[in-house]
Amino acid sequence: MTDACVVVNGLRKRFGPTIALDGMSFGVRPGLVTGFAGPNGAGKSTTMRVILGLDAADEGTALIGGRPYRDLRRPLCQVGSLLDASALQPGRTARDHLMWLARSQGLGARRVDAVIEQVGLRTAARRRAGGLSLGMRQRLGIAAALLGDPPVLIMDEPFNGMDPEGIIWIRALLRSLAAEGRAVLVSSHLMSELQDTADHVVVAGRGRVIADASVARLLETASGRRATLEEAYLELTRDAAGFRAAGAPEAAL
Amino acid sequence: MTVTAPYRPDPPAGRDGFVPVLRAEWTKFRTVRGWVAGVVVAAMVTVLFGILVASGVHCASGPFPGRPVELPCSAPLGPGGEAVDDRFFFVHRPLDGDGSVTARLTSLTGITTFPPPDHHPVVPRVVPWAKAGVIIKAGTERGSAYTAMMITGSHGARMQSGFTSDVAGPPGGVSAASPRWVRLTRSGGTITGYESADGTRWTEVGTARLAGPARAGLFVASPCDLSVYQGTFGGVGAACRFTQATAVFDQVTVRGAPPGGWGRTRVGDTGQRTDWELYHRPAGVQESAGTFTVTGSGDMAPLRAGEHVTVEWALAGVPIGLVVIAVVAVGFISAEYRRGLIRTTLLATPRRGRTLAAKAVVAGTVTFAAGLAATGVAIPIGTRILRAGGAVVLPVGALTEVRVAVGTAALMAVVAVLALGLGALLRRGGAAVAVVIATVVLPEVLAKASILPDGMARWLLRVTPAAGFAIRQSVPEYPQVIGYYAPVLGYYPLAPWAGFAVLCGYAALVLGLATARLRRRDA
């Protein structure tokens, strides 16, 4: 984990009586697409928000290049992120949305037009965000993540709302971003989406990591009949539940 | 797994710091059409409502104005440029160069008509600011420069000049047992006022400038008696009742005057007479064996707001404009909470205090610019319409007018910052707008509309952010001039900048709390 760009170490967080994070620890390495999987409530989104400095953890650290997000200068040039693609001011055009983000990082209109081109939003750039389809909003969110040409990308459910063509496009994009040496963390609740995209998978359950391995390894360590990541995942999460019930401390591969 | 070298982009050009945050927030603001339109509408509403109010004001030349918006049609200007009341009885001789006027006052009596609470027709009573004494005045025309040394009904000896200046001398009243001496000397354009109890030991009260040809002599004035009553539907009303004072002078000497008799002038005579003057005692002077008995009414004083129109009437639309400003400024932050966009904002600019400060700067600056455009248009157009309607718009100095125009724009800007802070603190747009209306707009409107009792109106305009409206007050209170200095007539309990400071304090407090909450809470 020493070469990881993003290091999550022992995160704990409670929301009232609910334990959201219970010792979450993993790393995201450059040059790879790291899938972040787990059932709803496993703590994926909370972990991402803590990494991005939006939520504060009760315990533990989440560092990007050795520093917490809030200490980054021009953060969009170091970490690009996509959390909720629908978080837009409906009256503002897609291009203007990217424009204010660019200004916040000291970037100009040329970079805005470049990412609009890159995500294929040119025809919709002057449309108001309120009139964009979910797929177009997703592309706009990805454009915002790419705006600062960052070495680290963190995306929460980027496949949501995408048509099949869009899913193919985003897979290729994520792979090409990783191939350029960027660290890419992608969460999804659908393992099938990650199977053809991720090099490495972190599986979360009940606020902690229950598996952290390459896709190849996840598939091969399992018995021969498990041909898909989805099956491996289902077995893992079922095991995790069993371990916790028995009070066993760890379940990792 | 392929081994790839970590991605190291070229460090992008550009700056880190407050400026990019500011540019981001400005870009955000100008790219939402509704917000830009809202600020323009706020400015237009401010101007149009001011014009509407100004168009409804007409002067009335009759003695009994029927409606409160009917006001006297003209007023003389004093040497300082302010509109003045200049009515008194004047017994005078020419004094073109150096010289002096001295007199002994042995009696000051008077009557008040219809005084509350029982409204007896007439009672013998000297009103507190009835005044009698010696005066040097540039002429007998209304508004001409003067300096007077006087004994008042119950404010002791005073030296007054130029309609606004008032210097207190030794206290005490006048009676046959304890007469008072007053003297004015003029030497090279400087007039010095003295008072004495015995005519030998003199106390200097003050000095004033008055050069050139003048008239020197005796005068008596008695301002109307103000009574304030509780209105039927809450609020207050005010009535000012005719009074008259009579002073007895002897040992009168004027040095430096050419030989000749005394002139007698009822300064500021409108030709109107009260029944008391017609059937009992007219204004005038009776002289017998060196004793002058002078009777007069009126005052030498600047005109008050309420009885007359002021510049800020043209800004009557400001509270309405502020409602629109509040909606826009609150929306500038609460919309981000509603849409979840606040997270995107904090991802781009994670220094939360800086981000909120940038929003406040943008909201404040945009509102200030719109407010300045509004006041810059409303004041000249509104006062022109008021004057065209015949109203006397109390003139104020250029600096005061600039303070009213720029200060009102600043008031709107600070209210925008306050609204933004409330939006960030409460995170709910409707609640934040409601708080702004309840604490800023309502106290001002209720106080001005005479709905609240006077005491409560004053209290609210001290302790709520609405205190900031004091920045609009163009004419000051004069303690030596009887007047109903109430919020309903445009007099605020705090001085203009003090009231503005109260508003700024609230804005700073709310913004500080909002920053603390933004820093502490998960986004």
TrEMBL record, chain A:
Gene Ontology terms for molecular function: ATP binding
PROSITE patterns: ABC_TRANSPORTER_1, ABC_TRANSPORTER_2
Listed Pfam families: ABC_tran
SUPFAM superfamilies assigned: P-loop containing nucleoside triphosphate hydrolases
UniProt entry tagged with the keyword Cytoplasm: no
InterPro entries in UniProt: AAA+_ATPase, ABC_transporter-like_ATP-bd, ABC_transporter-like_CS, P-loop_NTPase
Domain ABC transporter, chain residue ranges per copy: 6-231
Gene3D superfamilies, A to Z: P-loop containing nucleotide triphosphate hydrolases
UniProt keyword terms in alphabetical order: ATP-binding, Nucleotide-binding, Transport
Family designation: Belongs to the ABC transporter superfamily.
Protein name: ABC transporter ATP-binding protein
Organism: Sphaerisporangium corydalis
From TrEMBL, chain B:
Protein name as it appears in the record: DUF1349 domain-containing protein
Positions in coiled-coil regions: none
Domain of life the protein comes from: Bacteria
DNA repair recorded as keyword: no
Transmembrane segments: 35-57, 313-335, 356-382, 402-425, 432-451, 494-516
Keywords for this protein: Membrane, Transmembrane, Transmembrane helix
